Write the structure tokens for this entry.
Amino acid sequence: MLVVKPEPIDLTLDSDGDDEQPVVLSPGKPHSPRVKEELSESSAALAALRQPDQSQPFPSTPATPGPPSSSNRTDTPSQYRSALFDGPTIFANQQDFFDACAANLQQQFGFEAIPSKQKPTQISTRCPKHKTDGCPFRVCAALCDSGRWAVALRSCVWTHSHPPTKTSRIAKAVVEEAKAEVAQTAPPPPASTSTTAFDQPTNVYDLIPDFPKLSDTWSSVKDAFQTFVRATVPVYGVSMHYHQTSDQGVRIRCNRNKQLFAARPGGMCPFSIFLDRKTADGRWRMRSADSNLQHSHGPVGQILNDPAWRPLVKDAEAREALGLAPLPPKKRKSAAPPVKDSSTSQAAEKEVDELDDSGASLVAEDEASAAGPAIAGPSTAIGSANDPPGLPQPGDVFPSFVAVYQAYVKAYISTWGIGVWKSFPTLGCNRARCPWMAHVEACGGGFAVNADRSRLQHDHGPHENILADPSWRPVVFNIDARAALGWGLARKKPRFSGQLPLEKSPSPALNPSPSFAPPAAQSKLRDALSHGATLGHGSPSPALDLHPSPASTDFSTELSAFLFALHPSVALLAQPLSLAGIDGLPSLIHLASLGPGLLDSFLDEVRLAHELEALRAPQQRPVSVVQWRLLAKLLKEGRVQALRA
């Protein structure tokens, strides 16, 4: 875009003010009286354009008017005006003119100008709302003798009949101006007491000269944690928490190292202390290479205004270090949450979480920690009086984390029929929604359960199967758990080698392997049958000895035919079932009459024993778990049909 000396141009409008008709004058040639009169008028117009008071710099605010024109002398608000050019402007061709108009109007008003008139000697562009709303905005240009195009300011209309878009420069300027006006008249905001005194990172040794040194050691993690809490909370007004990363490592972090503070000034606090006990005496010490002793914040305002103020601390060990009374335990609700009459408990519970992290005003502990009254449900929580015998007691120290896990496994599986899972440093109940959780910590050269950080209470009782049959046991796959119960290893099946071994045909000479027959499965089925495995009405069944006998090899063909009749894919289960004690028609009838729990348990034991035997004899054809599940499903369906008949 070039701004040059304008050439003799005049532009007159038709009576409707829409069609432009430029008159191009070539000096140096004789003209008629009419042409001379038009030339004098053109010279007068050119003189008016050259006057400095008729053109002003490019507007930086939306209220700058364009050149004087009858079309511009309106009462339209200033934010409805957009003067694209403030002086005579020359363009090399039509496309440059259209592009410049579109870009300038888009920037100022939020709309892109579109071409309107494209005649040999005159062109114009308009606002896109001209056709729909009749917007009068228009930019005109005329052809010069040199072949270039000049903006005809006197024929341009800079006003609009509609407001600009919110993203335009004019609209933003109006909004900023309104905000500035409001800011000047608005009173200053009241000082907040919840903001921190320092918004810059602080080092603990700068504010706490007696903070524990790198050379200090402690006999336990609890002693170390409470030492840091006693030194930090009275100065910063923010507490700490910790978790064990391994048997020999503990990480202590600031309570502001949570996602809640990610969007706040300073972000999540990076302060952390790593403790290990790899010293010769087994004491815990700080590892400087893995610790960060710098907070992303300073003390909170409450601790500066009142040094005796303390935040609401929920960690039991931290409360003990600060000399605070223990919080009352929260009452857990039933598995089916009732409809709340109000949101008081929700608001109070949320307030506790906020206060514990951000250090806001302290509320009454009883009111803030209340989670609503406990409501009795269909499953009542089991108290300590009903706990199974043999559970680890507070203060019991075990040589390893696995030893603690095995102690709980032996106690719960033997009496309740409920398993326990482990994920260091936590133990949990196998029931998905049970709140029982044991937190194991390193203590005195061993490992013990921290009762303050644990929830040693179930929301259920023993398994229904073990109440019906005390010899019933759940299926256990964990190696450590099976070792605690004295069971063999449940190894995985060998990987497929790419070649299927040929199926061995039944042979009368095939004798059951004593190492294969699962004694637990045989005794379980034998006890169930001898005590009267029923069809659902409690009628006893005759006892049957399930020890493998030579007659079992004669029954394998009939058993295979029976399974094939159920489904062809389960016929391969004849051999493991025969070795497990299904050696005749009476035992097969009793197997089909077992209840769902006993049937699943028996088939799982037979399957595990068969997989173990497959490791010793790879030539056996593998059997899928799906086939065992299918057999259980078919037998259960047959039992239901027999009951209905």
Notes: Residues 596-616 form the longest helix (21 residues). Residues 9-170 form one domain. The chain has four domains: 9-170, 202-322, 392-485, 519-644.
